[in-house]
Amino acid sequence: MRTQRLALRPPRADDAQAIFTGFAADEAVTRYVAWPRHTSLEDTRAFLRFAQEQWRLWPAGPLVIESVQSGELIGATGLAFEAPRIASTGYVLGRRFWGQGYASEALAAVLSLAQTLGVQRLYALCHADHRASLGVLERGNFRFEALLPRHAIFPNLGVAEAQDVRCFVAVDVGQGTPYRQRPPQPG
Questions:
Q1: DSSP three-state, residue 161
Q2: Cβ contact 40:32 at 8 Å
Q3: Above 90 in pLDDT, residue 181?
Q4: CA-CA 20 to 30 A from 120: which of 78, 102, 110, 173?
């Protein structure tokens, strides 16, 4: 997939070093992600094996983000399927690429991919205090759905307790409205 400035593609084994040094081992970058910061290239290789398996099981999976201009790997995004029509997304960018609109551009591309694949519910979870990411989601055609108290552990915060998470749902998948199961009706 290509956007004006980015190319998104499945990760390859030869991406390990660029992923490790570009963002996966960076303390600031991984502060609010749900996976442990990579401390060795073996951690990154384990992620690459996981990515390959996701692509084998589902119509899409993790994607790396490259700069079209330089070819440099700048981050990652993708779709994580729970069921054929339900997936979540997220994004991570190397520190040098923050504040330049790349996360919003990548999120729009993933939203388009989800639509193409027939995803009816696309959502993103974000630490309740991660203001930059919250802004990307709000601007990216995702609507705040719920605050999930003490929902997830963020292993790189150095706090053992589960943290509050905000759930956002894409409004442009399915038939233009968020897909939700209806709660049981009384009587």
A1: coil
A2: no
A3: no
A4: 102
According to the model, what pLDDT value does residue 145 have? 97
How far is residue 136's CA from residue 87's CA, in Å, rounded to a whole number?
18
Six-digit token string for 55? 């692509």
Position 157 in a domain: no
Residue type, 147: L
> Domain range for residue 49?
6-124
Q: How far apart are CA 135 and CA 37, in angstroms?
A: 23
Say which CATH number the domain at 49 has. 3.40.630.30
Distance CA 134, CA 170 (A): 13
Which residue's structure tokens are 């038939």? 175
Give the residue with greater pLDDT, 78 vs 184: 78
Domain assignment present for 142: no
The answer as to whether 39 is a domain residue is: yes
Show the DSSP H helices in 8-65 as ranges.
16-19, 41-57
For residue 86, the model assigns a pLDDT of 97
